[in-house]
């Protein structure tokens, strides 16, 4: 892997190679937005994409047929519209069949309920279609494929559609002459998906009263809804146990999603969750069900919630287990579809390792993430956040040679350093006394677009000007100071010049003076700038400049320095005058 190369998704267009994390996010989102726009155009204007001539003809590569082919009011036409996920057309055709007295089979009506309970009363969208599986496959429960997203505040408005009173699904369910277990299960999952939790529980009671049995997907949805049905932690756990006992009584075999739903509920059960979650994991082991990434995330959230990190071996055990396996997606919470209000698994682990300041755990996590295809569970934006956390921990805990090795290999192929990462790196260089690396860090800062960050500039200048270094390093530092001066004096239309601060002026003057660049130190910074911004140079700046003037044999500059000190009323003006008289050969006019 080339450490200087950008992510493979950007290599089709070198002009769009991102410079930093913000560019990377913008370009990747733009690319995905273009794909979605293309899908929208194809769906909205299918008549312009009906040329399917190809040799050889490969059906899976041809555009999908989105226009109904069966005309008339009959059940076959209804099945076709359901298969094409045309919600409004399906409901209208069903109503026409009912009004005409044409019986509709139970299987077709259940398929219509599947469609309505998944999409609500809204039309399908490209995003929803990616979540939707083939409705005609009896083994696939569409509502289970997209688990309901949990909101932390009760009663908060969901961004998705909500279950309306007497909507089409409820209306059709009421007029069905015959209902089976599938009908009730579909309604329950639809109500949970669209946040009608109390109605879903009432529907489950109706299912029991009708002597039907729920399937495993329905129980999973009900367990997920438990935190919204009960207020107290212990009541939530008791209700979850009721559903689990009903599964046992109805001989319904739990699956991975069942245990993940239980753990997700225990996340909102406080201390009850910490005491009961190990028992859930043991039950999974007893049933020979392997955990997914979501299982570990729920477990870590229960034991390491918020900033209150208690000593626990759970995180070590989790990493030991993860390190041995390569994961495949099994739960909607495993990766890309994870709720934005929660932490992604690898990202939350990285944050916890950083908070615990445990570099060994961080290395374990990194090794696990690089195993097999595990890296695919985290999208590019969050991947940058993960590497940023990891690099900050390296700067904090590792030797500087190791830090620089990781930095060289990671940037920009794996991540784009953030301003905090650069600040952490500068502090690590300072702690290890490796300040000679600063000029290369400055070049990276310019490449990343951080050359106008005042906090980074101040830290950079402070480190470079704090001590005297060998001549070669001082010349490199002076070159950096010249770049920083140019940034402060930019006069382009798009960028306003940065304002000079007293400390920045002092540092730049020191760096120019130590490199023997007397003219730059005096004319560009001290005499003009200090007076313009009404700032007072420090004694160190005055002494360093006088030393520079002595080394370059510039008595005129020394005299100007004494005049400046006198005009500013500095206490050091008399001392500077004496030094000038003693250390320089002055003409009568200069005296």
TrEMBL record:
- Renumbered to this chain, region (Disordered) spans 124-164
Name the gene that codes for it. Ptcd3
| A GO molecular-function descriptor | rRNA binding
What's the protein here called? Answer: Small ribosomal subunit protein mS39
> InterPro entries in the record, alphabetically?
PPR_rpt (IPR002885), PTCD3 (IPR037387), Rib_mS39_PPR (IPR055063), TPR-like_helical_dom_sf (IPR011990)
Report the record's Gene Ontology biological process terms. Answer: mitochondrial translation; regulation of translation
User: Gene3D superfamilies recorded for this chain?
Assistant: Tetratricopeptide repeat domain
Cellular compartment(s): Mitochondrion
| UniProt keyword Lipid metabolism, yes or no | no
Task: Give the primary localization class.
Answer: mitochondrion
Q: Which organism is this protein's natural source?
A: Haliaeetus albicilla
What PANTHER family does this protein map onto?
PENTATRICOPEPTIDE REPEAT DOMAIN-CONTAINING PROTEIN 3, SMALL RIBOSOMAL SUBUNIT PROTEIN MS39
- What is one term from the GO cellular component aspect held by the record? ribonucleoprotein complex
Segments passing through the bilayer:
none
UniProt KW Manganese keyword = no
Q: What family does the entry list?
A: Belongs to the mitochondrion-specific ribosomal protein mS39 family.
Which keywords does this chain's UniProt record carry? Mitochondrion, Repeat, Ribonucleoprotein, Ribosomal protein, RNA-binding, rRNA-binding, Transit peptide, Translation regulation
